[in-house]
Every structure is written in C-alpha cells, then in structure tokens.
Amino acid sequence: MFNWGQDIGIDLGTATVIAYVKGKGIVLREPSVVAVDSNTNEVLAVGREARRMLGRTPGNIVATRPLREGVISNYTVTEKMLKYFISRVCGRFIFSPRIMICIPSQVTEVEKKAVIDAATQAGARKVYLIEEPIAAAIGAGIDIAKPCGNMVVDIGGGTTDIAVISLGGSVVSTSLKIAGDKFDEYIVKYIKKKHNIMIGERTAEDLKINIGCVYPKMQDTEMEIRGRDLIDGLPKTVTVYSSEMLEALIEPALMIVDAVHSVLERTPPELAADISDKGIYMTGGGCLVDGLDKLLQEKTGINVMIAQDAISCVALGTGKALDTLDSLDVKNRRR
Fold first, then answer.
1. Does position 57 have pLDDT exceeding 80, yes or no?
2. pLDDT at residue 333 is higher than 60
C-alpha cells in the first residue's frame, strides 16, 4: 500500500523514540538503541531488540544509544535508526514525509543542523524543529497561545527542559543535562559504594522504576538485585530498600529543583503571578520518579501537577503542532 507523503511528529528522545502520524496518533514507541556489527558496519537490530543486547554483546557487536544528553552523539547510527523508524511508520511512500522533530531548548545551531541533516538523509522531504517544553505544554493540553504564563518542567532521559511559556513562545528557559539517565548513574555509583557490587544500567533503571524515590515514603519498599561482587568477582544478590534510593537520588533531584528556582527568579513578575495561580506542569518519563512532584512543591511553595500520560506529552504536542506545517510553509515561501 502506498502513502502519498505523511506528516510525522517525532520525539527523538535519548531513551525512547516516539512517532506520531497526523490522523492516526502515536504509532511507534521504541527504545533509541541500535546494535551495529563493528566489522561490517551493518545494523543488526534497532529498538527493543537492540535494548535487550545492551551489556550482553560479543566484541564485534556494539549496542549503543546514538543520542546522549538530548543531542546526537553518533550521527551515522542516528541516521540509520531514523531511516528504520521512518520506513516502519510510512511503509512504501511515493512522496517523502514532512517531519517535525522536538529538540532541547538550549541546543546550539550545530546540534540543530545535525538533527535536520540526519532526518533529511533518513528520507524526510522537509524537517521542522520544535522546542521540547513547547511541545510538552501543547501535549499536556495547555493553551499556550494566550498572554499568560505557564511553567513546564520536562524531565526526559538525557535532559531536563524548564520553560515559562506565554503567547506561544518561551519567555525564560533552561536545559540541564540531569534527567533519567543521570538518576541511573547515581544509583550505579551508590550501589557500588554501599554494597560493593557492580550493576548495569538496566538493573539501575529497574531499581529507579520499582522502588526509586526522592521524598520519604510512608512504608519502606524493597527489591532484590544481582550484580558482580567487586571483591571476589562473583555474582552476588543483595536487597535494596527505597530509603537507600532516596539517599542515591536526592542529589540530582535537588539540582533540578535549583534549576526550576533559578528560572522562577528570572521570570517577569506578571508571569510569575500566573504560575503561582496555575501551578507547575511536569512532563516526561523522569517526572514519574516517586515524590519528585512533592519535593518540587515543598521547595517552591507552588502547586505541582504531573500531566496525564506524561511520557507521551512531547510526542503528542509535536503531533498537534503538525497542523501548523502548511502555515509555516506559506511563511517560508513569502520570505
């Protein structure tokens, strides 16, 4: 079946790629991992299949995440990954699709060009960029066109984007490279220091999802994990408690809180008053760490809400923004 060129919105995340097709909704949600044979440079697996290979491959196969901290770290592999996902979404198409991709709010022109080039080489007819906090706000159902302040904190895998949005644009924004991946790193370091065992990224992520917290819990929960003992080098099983996760994660969580505080300090007073009334919206998978909303609310004194379907907010917002592509094309032609 042929498609006469589609409009696709892509949340090109450090941890997950989510694709939205105009008229269909979210059609693809895959980990942004690619397995490559280093001898032949051939792509062996993409997405879930490649993620299962992380930390479990022989010497000639390299399972990598081509995006780090919100930007492209391996251009060639990113291009191959995008090509695979676009062909999966579009099938056989006569006209190449128009693609809107979201990017962190503080990326450089070089990093923007890398995203546009990679998508063009992967088969896009035209590439548009949208800032993550704006896409997240649209996806969370906020009317960003009004002249009033809305604050969005989007915590993804590689970056946390914080922005105050009014009249469809960012008034004050910041992007910091502390998010879900950094939480995992802190867990790996903590388990190494406290229990003297080495664990992998996937085990750290399981700990974060199942018992991770950044605010004291009413009841301590536990989870059994396996890793390599650093003394004798043998596999070892230990029980980890949520109170330990609080110790491991509180430092990066407070860095995010400090960044929110600094954005609020730079916000014009009228918009700050709006935010005080409406509250702060949190989106992205990283905001689902237990107690992060409570911690932010306690430290700022402002009501904090986690958006419905927080993980998909950016992709949904990018998808809704596809409706503006025709008007963007008209503006470009006039210029």
1. no
2. no
**CATH fourth-level superfamily of 2-134+314-334:** ATPase, nucleotide binding domain (3.30.420.40)
Least confident of 7-16, 47-56, 126-135: 47-56
3-state class of 246 per DSSP? helix
The pTM for the full model equals 0.88
Q: Are 69 and 14 in contact (CB under 8 A)?
A: yes
Per-domain residue ranges for the chain? Answer: 2-134+314-334, 142-306
Q: What is the pLDDT of residues 92-149, one digit of tens each?
A: 665 788 899 998 888 889 989 999 999 999 888 889 999 999 999 999 999 888 889 9
What are 32's strand-pairing partners? Answer: none
- First and final C-alpha spacing in the chain: 37
Burial of residue 123 (CB within 10 Å: 0-12, 13-18, 19+) is middle
Architecture of domain 142-306: 2-Layer Sandwich (3.30)
Maximum distance among all alpha carbons in the chain?
Answer: 70
Q: Residue 203: phi, psi to the nearest 5?
A: -65, -40
pLDDT bucket at 334, cuts 50 / 70 / 90: very low
Check: CB of residue 99 under 8 Å from CB of residue 127. Answer: yes
What does the H/E/C string look like for 190-219?
HHHHHHCEECCHHHHHHHHHHHCECCCCCC
With tokens 């949208």, the residue in question is 130
Average of per-residue pLDDT values in the chain: 88
What lies within 8 Å, CB to CB, of 297 at 6+ separation is: 303, 304
Domains 2-134+314-334 and 142-306 share a fold: yes
Half-sphere exposure of 45 (CA within 13 A, CB side): 17
The DSSP annotation for 49-88 comes to: HHHTTTT---TTEEEE-SEETTEES-HHHHHHHHHHHHHH
